[in-house]
Amino acid sequence: MAPSSNAVSPLMPRSPSNMNANLSPSKAKSLAMRKSIPKPPLPPAPSPSHRQPADVDMAEKMNEEISSKYVKGKKLGEGTYAIVYKGHLRSDPTKLVAIKKFKVDPSQQREGLNVDTIREIKYLQEISHPSIVALLDVFSSKDQNINMVIEYFPNGNLEELIRDKSVSYGAADVKAWMGMLCRAIYYCHSNFILHRDIKPNNLLIAADGEVKLADFGLARSFGDPRYQMTSAVITLWYRPPELLFGARQYSGAIDIWSIGMVFAELLIRRPYAAADVANQEVLATGGGTVAQLDKICEAVGTPNEENWPGVSKLKDYFDLDKKIPVRDKTFYMQMFPTAGSVGVDLLMAMLKLDPRKRVTARGALEHVWWTIDPRPTSKENLPKQGGGDSKMGASEAAAPGFVVDESKFKGVAKKLDFGAAR
């Protein structure tokens, strides 16, 4: 027998029309009456305080197991957001760590963790690279504060080394540090992660000489070029012009600009394009945009439609008073003689005004500069700056922290699920 033209496929969803097609009038009326009766509300979802005792006990046990692995020693430094302690493994006192305890600000308590900290923990748990700081553990202390255990860096950061005139270094050392940074960012970009805060202060120097990228509090996953992100990222002196003009859609080119500024700073031992803004709080919060763009005009050239098609369409674009042509190679050679002709080529490729023309992280690593003399210094022979404990504490305590609602985290262990943090 041929199938009825009114037959409903078992693969099709059951719509109200085909579900009730064969009902008698009386059954249809009865069904309509039942539908008019409101359903009782669903019981509320159990709150964290209603978790089963076994779950609470397991979480607390995991947390105790992690925290008991470490012995917290003297305080190394204290900042607005965190206190940094020197520590070591209980099982091996020679294995040093830094324990970063985040402060709780009662006036800013909120549900859960601040998004910056969620990002930092999330990304440091997901990635592993020789030139990226290693997150060893996360646990809550007895006072319910969150503690992050990271590698111990006795030699401070690259910013301190650059400023210390008692430390001398040359082109081979710069090439080694730049190689570590470029490899770290290539790894991040290959995993669709933007760092969004590259600067010498976030490049920590390990005991073996390796420079490691730290502070992933502003990091962000990327992939869809249409997705809009905030332009209020990257410390002002290292922020690219597209962000200063309010771009909301951007790529890894923003990190490359920052790397170029670090490269220039290593060569001349001072920030290359630094707005004269004395108030550090203004710098940290993204103020001084006009002053910073003026410095970029002087250092690289004035952005316009000729050298950067489409720039005038950016949300916060304005016509700059300074009209300086894009700097040529002769200018860069005079500014950065230590880099040599080939090194200057790479620097200029990183500091293109148009982000679409900037070299990629992979392109930077494939540049011929790495293969010519002088070859990069081995990390064991790189110059190091002393200072030890005090420098480690100052570097980490100064990093932005987060606010924790103390009542929410009585058993935080390393395997928390931060997969939703984007």
From TrEMBL:
Identify which residues the record assigns to the active site. Answer: D197 (proton acceptor)
What residue stretches are annotated with the Protein kinase domain? 70-370
Q: Which Pfam families match?
A: Pkinase (PF00069)
Listed under GO cellular component are: cytoplasm; transcription factor TFIIK complex
Give me the segments passing through the membrane.
none
- Gene3D superfamilies tied to this protein: Phosphorylase Kinase, domain 1 (3.30.200.20), Transferase(Phosphotransferase) domain 1 (1.10.510.10)
**Residues reported in the UniProt entry to bind ATP:** L76, G77, E78, G79, T80, Y81, A82, I83, V84, K100, K101
UniProt cross-references to InterPro entries, sorted A to Z: CDK, CDK7, Kinase-like_dom_sf, Prot_kinase_dom, Protein_kinase_ATP_BS, Ser/Thr_kinase_AS
Keyword flag ATP-binding: yes
Write the protein's name: CMGC/CDK/CDK7 protein kinase
User: What organism does the record attribute this protein to?
Assistant: Cladophialophora yegresii CBS 114405
